[in-house]
Amino acid sequence: MLVGFLVIFSAVMGAFTSSLFMGETKVPSIPSETILFLPLEGTFIEHSNTVGYGLGDKVPTIREVVGTIDRAAKDDRIKALVISDRGGALGLVHLQELRNAVKRFRESGKQTYFYSPSYESLGVYYLASAFEEIWLQPIGILNIPGINAEMPYARNLLDNIGIEPQIFARKEYKNLFENVTDDHMSEASREAMSSLIDTLGKIISADIAEGRGLEPAAFRKALDKGLLLDEEALSAGLVDVVGYGDELNEMLIESITGDPNSDETVFTPLSAYQRAVEHESVLSPVAVKKKPNVALIYIVGQIVQHNLDGANELSSAESLVGVLRAAAERKDVKAIVIRVDSPGGSPVASESIRRAIVHAQEKGKPVIVSMGEAAASGGYWISAPADHIFAAETTFTGSIGVTGGKFSLKEMWSKLDVNWDSVSWGENSSLWSFNQPYTASERERMNALMDQIYNKFVAVVAEGRNMSPEQVDAVAGGRVWLGAQAKDVGLVDDLGGLDDALDYTANLLGHNDRQDLQVTVLPRPKTAIEKIVEFLEMQASIGKMYDINVRILEWIEPLMGSIASQENHVSALAVTPEGKI
Q1: Do the domains spanning 31-145+226-283 and 293-528 agree at the CATH topology level?
Q2: Most buried among 56, 120, 216, 395, by the most CB within 10 A?
Q3: What pLDDT, on the 0 to 100 scale, is given for residue 8?
Q4: In the predicted model, what is the mean pLDDT of residues 145-159?
């Protein structure tokens, strides 16, 4: 721990000292004519405080990338945009938001180029289809086999080893645990999944056909082949050039310098351009008109109650309630935009966050929600009270339902000749024990819990969406919807991304668009030093827990024996009242 700290500390201090003496040289200058370049590698994130990012190379947020491309579209120094696929893995919503930014850049009259040695996924090609020129390396392929969803069903295996899943759900479409409770897909799941895939396919197919100037039937014919060779992709009109990356480079260099072999630097990485324009804005002597302040609050990840060791800052009620209430109390904050990217989580935590949103509305703050990759289950619970909800066409949302339970290991222990014995206090004291199935009394309690959560969920949505409980129940049942479907059934108001939500907010405040807003991101992005300190604190906590566990084992093992000790590890697993194992 000490050695690791010294290494990191010296590296940080070296970087900090260098920045003091060489800060000006760190800011790149933008040539009078240049080409914006973005290599797609890794992923984009929603917020810079996302756990697991930020200690190494800076991972850009999707908002930063989209905003920088929009800025470049209006910058006369930027002559073209080039994106190269280097193994990036973006979700569909991020692909759509990036794709829309490329379309706006292209509409400004500037050239756009996409290059990949081989298109290995439909998602990458979906992004590429927004570009004016698509390049494919010789021998590369266009792999667009459509969409296929496969799920394993393990009930027979669990029966064979004596594990009984005892899961409760409200209602028929809430299939989170179906692949352990059943040996095949239920009709409700098949119906919902087929609808999702069919709608998703139509959205992607229509966008690609439009981008390439093809009839949807012509693209579908190519897609049904699944895999196209380089010349086949060219003949089908799905790529424009079968050529090498160095040939594209020479062509672009010549377009700027007049000489394809020029050594002049003509490419500006998007990250460098972003730093440069931010620096130019700070140094600009032009007076800036005071803009209304809008709080942009991120809720990202599985919703939980507590912010354990600072790791759940973007998804815990403990942190987010404070952030929301602080924004509600600030007089300079004129509206709140919430970016939700969450598959759900604890109903109790979701309700705490929802209440904080309602409190902000009671304080006169309009609340607008922008849904990211997912705003489902608890993610929809917290979105429902918003004054206006935006979802991307491909956002996974809805899932108005609840599921929970446990696995009974009683038969497994019997097969292993292990007998568990116990003493208890309380009729339902074994409610969360893995070693006993639910009693009739415990089942009654679980059903009461499921009913309470589901009925409250329906009531929350009914109130937030101005619907009757019967109308909500008709589109609930635990069913997941795509954003495009959710708009049709009344669960969201408009289709669009975060920029659309900010534009709407600007209009609501009497302004033209998001450029007229001062956007304050919350929770506040952490500095590099803060992230390193947090990382070291987390390492210290892990070391402390390891030490405690070792001491407990040293005390238990002489009393219980090694086999009993191992069994106690299993019994120590707990299931929360929300059914999260």
Answers
A1: yes
A2: 395
A3: 57
A4: 92
Which of the four CATH numbers 3.90.226.10, 3.30.428.10, 3.40.640.10, 3.40.50.10860 does domain 293-528 have? 3.90.226.10
Share of the chain above pLDDT 90, in %: 73
Cβ-contact 171, 474 below 8 angstroms: no
| Under 8 Å between Cβ of 388 and 440 | no
Query: Environment class of residue 142 by beta-carbon count within 10 Å: exposed (0-12), middle (13-18) or buried (19+)?
Result: buried
Report whether 166 contacts 438 (CB < 8 A). yes
- Block residue for tokens 């090694």: 562
pLDDT tens column, 496-530: 999 999 999 999 999 999 999 999 999 887 665 65
Q: Per-residue pLDDT for 190 more than 80?
A: yes
Strands 388-391 and 367-376: parallel
- Determine if the pTM surpasses 0.90: no
Average pLDDT, the chain: 86
Only one residue has tokens 């500095």, namely 527
Residue 457 CA to residue 398 CA, distance in Å, equals 11
Q: What is the pLDDT of residue 308?
A: 82
Q: Which among 83, 86, 88, 81 has a CA at the least distance from the CA of 104?
A: 81
Query: What gap in Å lies between CA 183 and CA 166, rounded to an integer?
Result: 15
**Residue linked to tokens 């086949």:** 232
**pLDDT higher than 60, residue 535:** no
Q: State whether CATH 3.40.50.970 applies to domain 31-145+226-283.
A: no
Average pLDDT on 22-36 reads: 73
Q: φ, ψ for residue 46 (rounded to 5)?
A: -80, -40
- List the beta bridge partners of residue 390: 370, 494
Each domain of the chain, given as residue ranges in start order, spans 1-27, 31-145+226-283, 293-528
Amino acid letter, 417: D
Residue 114 three-state SS: strand
